[in-house]
């Protein structure tokens, strides 16, 4: 019997092009595929939770204005240290 709290196993099927990209990305970052997939899933779940929080806030307070969104984009660009384009919501 394993000691501690062993991680559950998850069997998945992914498209061949995604498979190759996952293997490459994990190797590039020096991670196992399991560690890379766990990191990617955490990031996706974190992003989803953040978007849900924004939706709840907007339901209570109204949509963010264009000025507020532009100011937020500037802050994100400054934090990232880049001038890349941040996708706008419709």
Please tell me how large the radius of gyration is. 19 Å
Q: Look at the structure and give the mean pLDDT.
A: 89
**Tally of strands:** 0
Contiguous helical run count: 3
Class computed from helices, strands and strand pairing = mainly alpha
Q: What's the story with the biggest beta sheet?
A: none
Order of helices and strands: HHH
What would a concise description of this structure say?
The protein has 3 helices and no strands. The protein has 90 residues and is mainly α. The mean pLDDT is 89.
Could you name the key traits of this structure?
90 residues; mainly alpha
Write the layout of secondary structure elements.
Layout: H1 16-28, H2 33-61, H3 66-80
Helix pairs in contact: 1-2
Descriptive account of the structure:
Helices cover 63% and strands 0% of the residues. By secondary structure, the chain is mostly helical. Helix 1 packs across helix 2 (33-61). The model has no long low-confidence stretch (mean pLDDT 89).
